[in-house]
Amino acid sequence: MPKASGVRASIPLADLPSNITSDAIKAVIVDINSYFLKENNTNVSLKITAKNISKSKPTLVGSLEVIATIPESTIVESAEFNDARIVGNTLQVSVGPGGAGTAILNPRYSNSQLYFEIQSVLFMGREIPASSLPSDLQSQIKSRSQRSLAPPKGLEVQSVSLSSKGLSLQMLGNNVKLSNLGSAL
After folding, report:
1. Strands 147-148 and 166-177
2. If you ran DSSP here, which 8-state letter would residue 39 be given?
3. Is the domain of 92 the same as that of 56?
4. Ordered alpha helix ranges (H), 26-171
5. How far apart are CA 29 and CA 156, in angstroms?
6. What is the mean pLDDT of the segment spanning 34-38?
7. Domain, as residue range, for 13
8. Residues 37 and 56 both lie in one domain
9. What are the φ and ψ backbone dihedral angles of 134, each rounded to 5 degrees?
10. Angle at 56 between CA 50 and CA 58, to 5 degrees
11. Residue 137 has what pLDDT?
């Protein structure tokens, strides 16, 4: 991984005896502080957990979990909204004349598309749920924030979440051939 820095790999100590005597390595955990994705000119952090790695075919992994986290600063800078900020597990943006309200947005992933949807709007101290807002507003938010995201071959996006670290995508796969991941990672 020539585009990576801050790489740490570990094998659980309790697994060492079985890893030595069996035909497979139970688990390897790799943490990467910074990995440059040239496709979208973004640095991400990665946590990779590989389980049941065949010793005879070390490029075949029984199960693979990859958590890619796009830093908070990148999410805020690339948001198509004024003064976006991550608060808890939501993205909050000013809305309305002079920013009188605050839209609370949640990340979603569906059909190879990553986007935000409205949870609610705070206006003059009152919370208005998304179900009470005009339906075209939800569509506008989705279209402004929508980005294509195809996971690497052999992996499926399981969840997407926000935290103070940024936007995290959890991807899982079974019987993954590492060579199939190609340049996606």
Report:
1. unpaired
2. T
3. no
4. 72-78, 135-145
5. 19
6. 82
7. 4-71+151-184
8. yes
9. -60, 140
10. 30
11. 84
Q: Which amino acid is at 150?
A: A
User: Is there a single domain that holds both residue 43 and residue 134?
Assistant: no
Same domain, yes or no: 84 and 133: yes
Regarding whether 84 and 44 lie in a shared domain, the answer is no
| pLDDT at site 21 | 92
For the cut 80, the answer to whether the pLDDT of residue 36 exceeds it is: yes
Per-residue pLDDT reduced to its tens digit, 79-134: 777 788 899 999 998 887 887 889 999 999 999 999 999 999 998 889 999 999 88
| Distance (Å, whole) CA 31 – CA 84 | 28
Identify whether residues 86 and 65 lie together within a single domain.
Answer: no
DSSP at 183: G
Q: Which residue has the tokens 């199960």?
A: 63
CA gap 101, 124 in Å, rounded: 7
Report whether 82 contacts 74 (CB < 8 A): no
Averaged pLDDT for residues 22-50? 88
180 membership: H or E segment, kind and range:
helix 178-181
Same domain, 64 and 100: no
Contact 35, 154 (CB under 8 A): no
Taking the C-alpha atoms of residue 179 and residue 176, their distance in angstroms, rounded to an integer, is 9
Q: Both ends of the chain: CA-CA distance in Å?
A: 9
Q: Count up the domains in the chain and report the number.
A: 2
Residue 20 and residue 86 in one domain: no
